[in-house]
Amino acid sequence: MFLYHHNYDNMDRGNHDYTEKPLVIEPLVEGFKISRGDVIFYHNENGEKDISRIIALPGEKIKITGGQVYINSQKLDAFYGFAHRLGLDKDRYFEMMDEAGNQYNKNGMREYFETNMEQIKLASDEYYLIDDDWMRGKMRVIKEQDIVGFVLGYTE
């Protein structure tokens, strides 16, 4: 195991665990199963170290319609299957923000909740990653060979 300090808020769900505390990384060993929802440590397309969440597995079909992730035509019913980092749908988000009297860019947020992606099918060695905060993060396909390990948690 080793520690990694992630200096970007792409995985922030409001508690800042991924940015303010060193992360404990378990290196990937042969035969270890990678599952949907795992937060992984990997090398991105620029060869830099990064973290993200596994959304789709090898051989699966993934698409996004109206800010909702679908895997093999089935709605991904998990907090990370929705556009908002806390798992809120569009109606609940706007209701919460308006009730709290918050000032925000409603038109920009409507676009955010209408994120769409045509369906793609992953190859036998590919995974689809989406950062928890869609607004600050990325969506991408990576090869299994780029995965270094799993984020187990953080240290105090």
Automatic annotation (TrEMBL):
Residues 32-133 form the Peptidase S26 domain. SUPFAM superfamilies: LexA/Signal peptidase. It holds the Pfam family Peptidase_S26. This is Peptidase S26 domain-containing protein. It comes from Lederbergia ruris.
